[in-house]
Amino acid sequence: MFICRNQPCGAQWHPSEVEVRNEGQGYLFRCPLCGSRNYVERVTAEDGTVAYQQPRA
User: Fold this and answer.
1) Contacts of 16 (CB under 8 A, 6+ apart)
2) What is the separation of C-alpha 41 from the centre of its chain, rounded to a whole number of angstroms?
3) Which of 1, 13, 42, 56 counts the highest number of beta carbons within 10 A?
4) What pTM did the predictor assign?
5) 36 in Cβ contact with 5 (< 8 Å)
């Protein structure tokens, strides 16, 4: 579950509901509700699958 870090928003999103991309400053998703940029970390598992997780505040 990803959480928008914009204090007035705070919306929660499943990873399937957002698009993670690199806009030149690292991986992030834009909140579909308010448009705020929220950074995520890319994690590669041993089997080669890629997942994203949101760092703690």
Assistant:
1) none
2) 8
3) 13
4) 0.85
5) yes
Secondary structure class of 52 (helix, strand, coil): strand
Q: Measured between alpha carbons, how far is 34 from 26 in angstroms, rounded to an integer?
A: 20
- β-sheet with 27-30: strand ranges across: 20-22, 27-30, 37-39
Cβ atoms of 11 and 22 closer than 8 Å:
no
Domain count, the chain: 1
- The residue range of the domain holding 26 is 2-53
Q: List, for residues 1-57, the tens digit of each pLDDT value.
A: 999 999 999 999 999 999 999 999 999 999 999 999 999 999 999 999 999 999 986
Asked if 11 and 36 touch (Cβ cutoff 8 Å), the reply is no
For residue 46, what pLDDT is reported? 93
